[in-house]
Amino acid sequence: MRSENEALIVIDVQNDFCPGGALAVTDGDAVIRPINAMLDEFAVRVLTQDWHPAEHHSFASQHQGRAPFESIEMPYGSQVLWPDHCAIGSHGAEFHPDLRVDRAQTIVRKGFRRDVDSYSAFFENDHRTPTGLEGYLRARGVDTLVLAGLATDFCVAFSALDAARLGFRTTVVEDACRGIDLAGSLRTARADMRRAGVTLA
Ligand code: VGL
Ligand code: ZN
Prior knowledge:
The chain is α/β, with parallel strands linked by helices. Helices cover about 20% and strands about 20% of the residues. It has helices spanning about 30-40, 135-140, 150-165, 185-195; strands at about 5-10, 45-50, 70-75, 75-80, 105-110, 145-150, 170-180, 200. The chain has a six-stranded parallel sheet with strand order 5-2-1-6-7-8. Strands 3-4 form a two-stranded antiparallel ribbon. The longest helix has 14 residues, at about 150-165. The radius of gyration is 16 Å and the shape is globular. Zinc ion binds near residues 50 and 52. Zinc ion binds near residues 50, 52, 58, 85 and 111.
């Protein structure tokens, strides 16, 4: 067992990001086996869950004449438009059935405000509105994080960058992540994480 100051943060291992899902990441379900193994090792174990209202503004379907994977400007900056995914209460929003959800002590839901997306486990995409995860981790005496899940270049990377900025010692376990890789986003995300002091293991 790892020590009490280390937390495992499992990002968005949900049906919609796995093969057959609305925003399927190639081989997304391959992260489950290594993540389930890590869930046995860590004392502090958190899952995040992408959790969008049906009319979420990150959905291309909400913007006339727009297609999924195009980008638009939002008040808080550039936003990729996605296929409808992880709608609150839907099958796609549920965790993959093989993920050992029972091992988690906390589940952080994010992206539930219609007008702002939330890739990071810590802040919404305005980079200011907190999810509450930082307070939870600090209150439990955590200063070191290990991140895994989906997708490497969006929710995992945004979470890792925020974690490093908040002063957590941060590692991303790449074998336990898979990426979307939109226009080189995987490469950019890796470089950004390294530059921020995130360890890629
Ligand atoms: C994610 C795009 C939209 C992710 C979530 O989990 O990486 N990507 N919503
Ligand atoms: Zn989403």
